[in-house]
Amino acid sequence: MTDRDADFTAYLQARQPRLLRTAYLLTGSRHEAEDLLQTSLAKLYLAWDRVHEREAVDGYLRRIMVNEHNSLWRRAWRRRERPTDEVPEAAVRDEYDEGVAAAVWEVVQTLPRRARAVVVLRYYEQLTEAETAEALGISVGTVKSQCSRALAALRERTPSELDPNRPADHRGTHPEEGR
Amino acid sequence: MSEEIFVEELTRRADDIHAAPLTVDTVRGRARQIRRRRRTGLAAGVAAAVAAVALAPTALSGGVDRAPEPAPAVPVPPLPDGTYPLTLDAPAGPAPQAAYLDNPAQRLITPDGAIALPEPYDQMLPYGDGWIARYGQEGAELDADLQVERSFESAMGFATSDDGELVAWSELDGDDSVVIVADADAGQELTRTTVPQTEARPLGFLPGGSVVVETTDYPNGGIAYAVVGDGEVTPVVDVQIVNDSSPVTGMVAGQVDYRGDRACSGVRGNQSEGWERCGWTLGQLSPDGRHVLAFRSPNPGPTPEGVAVLDTETGETVVEWSGATVDHAVWEDEDTVLATAQDRNRQTILRLEFDGSATRTTEVFTTPDMGVAVWFQSYPRG
């Protein structure tokens, strides 16, 4: 194994679980996530010497993943390129899939792809607004506005009695009953 | 509702994903697929459904639709002069594995389908989640939906590395040019180098991400060639007119001498004094750098008749075709050439193989007056 391959293998082993989770949040599908990650890692592999020197591997891969996922003209090809090993969809816990949890996931899944990437990088990857903007090649203002819109969408879709920020004595009370 | 809810719920969702199913071998396998496709001018592939374009049926089986299996090319005997026939009536074969622009229909045709274009772009290359495109000297970054995100004034041509990783273009800034090298997948600029008092046009890549550019100086209009890399601009001294460069071998192909009324061409490396062929102009170097396309021509410039493949080591002709006008030609892979062949107002794309065989890969297009109908996506036309 070459030094290059050894370095890449070490990176793959160390970062794959985390990267697969990010890909899953971007795509909403375990299968698509694995496919997206495989293609993105392959592109990283091809650019490894250049990118590795810059010590910005995670940032580069995030950007590739988002571009790959956003790009309309790449989607059909991705559908044809199947991963080597089929992995069954993971059984996602559903005990919280009512109320806020379901609303958050619904909001994320219905956001436009670029806005969804903003939410995933900002709230899951915990990047700052500036880091998110840099990763996606957009302005900080766009990051702020996309996050605000996502929050607004969540407020619209969440039953008010499930809002954890709502005062406790209002929870479970029908709006009409408070009058 | 606060941001913490997003943080908590996204983390909880993601925590259900534990596997690490990918191995270095599976990643390398995908990388090989990507590299093959990049060499055909596609970074990844193009959806037929993009922009809601329905492909028009073509008269040619395999036309723009993908052919499941390539039909075997039929070897033909050479003509008395030793060249092989280049005719628009060549037998039909599979669609070309290189993207091309269909100018009359204003669309980009790819191995995966067609995209209707909002503008009659001269050149467009994959960039980020969209494209970088050029119409004359107007450059633009397009998003995934082909909407213009940014426009700029550009010199007449973009260059892409053979592996598709890098793209280079120039932006005009007053009397200066800024040559930009960018990562095509990331859609991210890597270097910006100012070439003062010139209009610089990228022609091709060299190893390490350096770019060969053609410079037209102000105000005299004198043309010269330079290598742009690591923030420096270094003149090309051993080639008078550069046609292409190889990011694999570092060789530069072009006119190396001018004798009387004839241009002489050759391939040069950093310190080599190689062969020269007079009465020929050169085209693209093959992806592996072993061959170079060549056109018989008494002077550089006129549209050549036919096309040949030369050995870059010796300059010897490997194979030559004649009989139709070739506007330009590109490598489909290391040993297959795609050439736009024109006969009066008819034009098509032929696949040419080293055994001399030729197959027609598209329908026959009707060309506009004094013009051409199709050219390759990566070709710096204009």
Question: What would you note in describing this structure?
Answer:
The complex is a heterodimer of chains A (179) and B (382). Chain A has 179 residues and is mostly helical. Chain A has helices spanning 3-27, 30-46, 48-53, 57-70, 72-80, 100-110, 113-124, 129-136, 140-157. In chain A, helix 6 crosses helix 9 (140-157). Chain B is mainly beta. Chain B has helices at residues 3-14, 24-38, and strands at residues 84-85, 100-102, 107-110, 113-116, 123-127, 130-135, 138-142, 148-153, 159-160, 166-173, 176-183, 188-195, 198-205, 211-217, 223-229, 232-235, 241-245, 252-259, 262-268, 277-278, 280-285, 291-296, 305-311, 317-333, 336-343, 346-353, 358-360, 365-366, 374-376. In chain B, strand 3 and strand 4 (113-116) form a beta hairpin. The relative contact order of chain B is 0.14.
Tell me the major beta sheet of chain A: none
Q: N-to-C terminal Cα separation of chain B, in Å?
A: 55 Å
Number of strands of chain B: 29
Strand content of chain B: 35-45%
Give, in order, the helices and strands of chain A.
HHHHHHHHH
Descriptive key words:
heterodimer; A: 67% helix; elongated; B: 382 residues; mainly beta; four-stranded antiparallel beta sheet; 29 strands; 44% strand
Short description, anyone?
The complex is a heterodimer of chains A (179) and B (382). Chain A has 179 residues and is mostly helical.
Draw up the topology in text.
The complex is a heterodimer of chains A (179) and B (382).
Chain A lengths: L2 H25 L2 H17 L1 H6 L3 H14 L1 H9 L19 H11 L2 H12 L4 H8 L3 H18 L22
Chain B lengths: L2 H12 L9 H15 L45 E2 L14 E3 L4 E4 L2 E4 L6 E5 L2 E6 L2 E5 L5 E6 L5 E2 L5 E8 L2 E8 L4 E8 L2 E8 L5 E7 L5 E7 L2 E4 L5 E5 L6 E8 L2 E7 L8 E2 L1 E6 L5 E6 L8 E7 L5 E17 L2 E8 L2 E8 L4 E3 L4 E2 L7 E3 L6
Parallel strand pairs in B: 1-24
Antiparallel strand pairs in B: 2-3, 2-29, 3-4, 5-6, 6-7, 7-8, 9-10, 10-11, 11-12, 13-14, 14-15, 15-16, 17-18, 18-19, 19-20, 21-22, 22-23, 23-24, 24-25, 25-26, 26-27, 26-28
